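# step 3/5: fold
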Amino acid sequence: GLESAELVKYASNAFLATKISFINEIANLCEEVGADVHAVAKGMGMDKRIGSKFLHPGPGYGGSCFPKDTTALIRIAQEQGVHCRIVESTVEVNAAQKARMVKKIREALGGSEAGKTIAVLGLTFKPETDDMRDAPSLAIIPNLVDKGAKVRAHDPQGVEEAKQLLPGQVEYCDDIYETIDGADAVVLLTEWNAYRSLDFDRLKELMNSNVFIDLRNVYEPDAIRSRGFAYSCVGRD
């Protein structure tokens, strides 16, 4: 029936969004107890009842489907006098995760982003798209700008759309290393392939500082720290 078909879509996307919010909460716990969220997610994924997909920690989900469909499912439930507390919590956790990323960046910069130049790599909600809908960058970058940071950004496809949505103070660059030149910190926000093989020797020469904040866990912590960087990521020591 039509009712069941509609709920299939909403329930499926809400379930996947819940997996993302769940692993993000586990990642936050891992940081406090000294566990590695990648190891935890791998172990969980070996259980065929759970599976390994959508257990990748990061700055929160975005895009066209998950935010819209979780909200729609909650609204439908409310209209029918039914509670969807798990989905409601998923939405709350996702918003909190984005706020937590701002705090992570602030702490990596010594407690304040005021007056600091931050190079942001990636603006879209995921790689291989120009889609900016509900991208984590839309929640994170305005907070940094409001606190006095100078944000310089790069994205292979999303810049034109980002210009319509982000604060006018954000500076956009066509080249990755131009974006990083003179930065006090680099924030890897979307895991485009172009950011998976950065020249860290060149970064060290170009940056004012050595702060690298990897919100997609693209790199191995020990490898980057051994290059002399103050490396932060999500759910890993």
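# step 4/5: annotate
Strands lie at 117-121, 150-154, 171-172, 185-188, 211-214, 230-232.
# step 5/5: archive (pending)
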